[in-house]
Design a protein that fits this description.
There is one protein chain. The protein has about 90 residues and is mostly helical. The chain contains three helices and no strands. Helix 2 runs antiparallel to helix 3.
Length: about 90
Amino acid sequence: MKRFKQSSIDYIVNQDYTREQLVEQLIEARYKSDKYRAGEQWLDELASHYRDNQGDDDYGKVCSDLYKDYEQEIKSINNKYLNQKES
């Protein structure tokens, strides 16, 4: 992971970006990072719930609620970064 981060930094540094292009690249990287982090968190919570509560009566409802929370997080991330990118 550290090698990947360093190669990404080297790539950006070696490009002849203007400040605006660099800002756009950074916003896009943060957007993707937050989006992947939200997906990772949702899958982790879903797996924990599946492992611990598979036979419970409210199992399906909790899974549905977890997905709704994930959708809200994605909407929040989209609003945060996509609106910022447009301005």
